[in-house]
Amino acid sequence: MENTGKTKAKKQVLQSPKGMHDILPQDQPLWDRVYRIARDVSEYYNFKHIETPMVERSELFERSIGEATDIVEKQMFTFKTKSRESLTLRPEGTAGIARSYIQHGLGQLGLPLKLYSAGSMFRYEQPQAGRYREFHQIECDIISVESNPIYDAQAILVFCRILEVLKIKDLRVAVNSIGCKSCRPVYRKKLQAYYKSHKRALCAHCVSRLDKNPLRLLDCKEEKCRALREDAPIMIDNLCKVCREHFKHVLEYLDELELPYMLDHYLVRGLDYYTKTVFEIFTGEETVNALGGGGRYDYLIEMLGGKITPAVGWAMGVERVIEHIKTQGINIGIRAKKKIFIIYIGELAKKKALGLIEELRKNNIDVDESLGRESLNAQLRIADKSGAPLALIFGQKEAFEESIIIRDLATGIQETVPLEKMAASVKKKLKNKG
Ligand code: HAM
Prior knowledge:
By secondary structure, this protein is α+β, with helices and mostly antiparallel strands. The protein has 15 helices and 16 strands. The protein has an eight-stranded mixed beta sheet with strand order 1-5-6-11-10-9-7-8. A five-stranded mixed beta sheet has the order 13-12-14-15-16, with helices on both faces. A three-stranded antiparallel beta sheet has the order 2-4-3. Helix 12 links the parallel strand 12 and strand 13. Helix 1 packs antiparallel against helix 5 (149-165) and helix 5 (149-165) packs parallel to helix 9 (241-256). 35% of the residues are buried.
């Protein structure tokens, strides 16, 4: 058929990249509140804020997270710069924090050093509920001279307290110990031998990682692999004396703090830098999508070229927490600031209104406006929609007489006051309205 030119080509609307989402204005108050609470609670427990770049040298993640992990093997957004340097969008925050600690000699700030950070992370995953390609984490880490189990408990405590203030109920901290340099290799061999003797019953993915990363077989979600793990040797029976003592103390401290933990012998985590304690936090019946996770990483700083400096920490998945708050309809105390609305009529009033807004600002009165709209009706509609308790109406007459009308938007009652009394009158009326 001849193209008459009348059929317009359908405009293609550009979408955000797969698995990456906008955080829209209507959601910002909730996000702000979650960040505010996390920051307030961690500051209470003496965590200091740190920010590291969203992009790091690829080598940092290869060396720290581990080359045989899913993250490094499949999930990194890596690119070459014009100077042929290989950089990666950070898939997690801990490696960057350890790098920054060494680079700036942050140990000088005094140890233990408690660090808080937050930001975007990137993993090339198959997007699904609770799993995105860009997501946000809030992270807390305690870096210290000694590998003291009290820090493990303190780290878990802060995480639980943040979730409690966010009114998230039925928390469950799954904990395990995955041993250290001396006991884990022995256990790893035992586990490998066990799985090799059942190789035929394993899923293809587990067969492929049996040699490189046998611990990950314990958290495979495939039914047949789950059945096999029931008889697999567990780490906790194979811990060396130091790790056993460490884990025992962690559990004692968690008991003392009355934190809701449970042992999970199959919890191994997906990052190679962990030693001793590992943990994940869930809510309700959820068993797959943790609200967050973490653990001890005593060798990471040394592995990246620093002195031997043990550490422990965790990261919370902000999207997962927000989704939970939304689906459960939890009210975490978001109160929209009450603003008053200024309405003008005529060019002179419009010009003078600019100055009035500045005067109100000096008096700590929050003002909303729509100075770009000429029509009074349009302005009134916007004022009504904004939920403002009061409107200030400023017309030609008021502009000449140096006065302004204060209108109660709920009752419609109005009062004209001289401009010099405007701020005081508004404050009084707002106070009376509670
Ligand atoms: P992680 O377990 O890989 O640990 O991530 C922590 C949390 O981030 C997860 O429990 C989850 O809530 C969230 N998360 C992870 N991947 C995604 C995703 N694709 N989409 C949405 N949320 C996700 C770490 O990243 C360690 N750096 C934690 C840590 C800090 N360890 C010591 N200090």
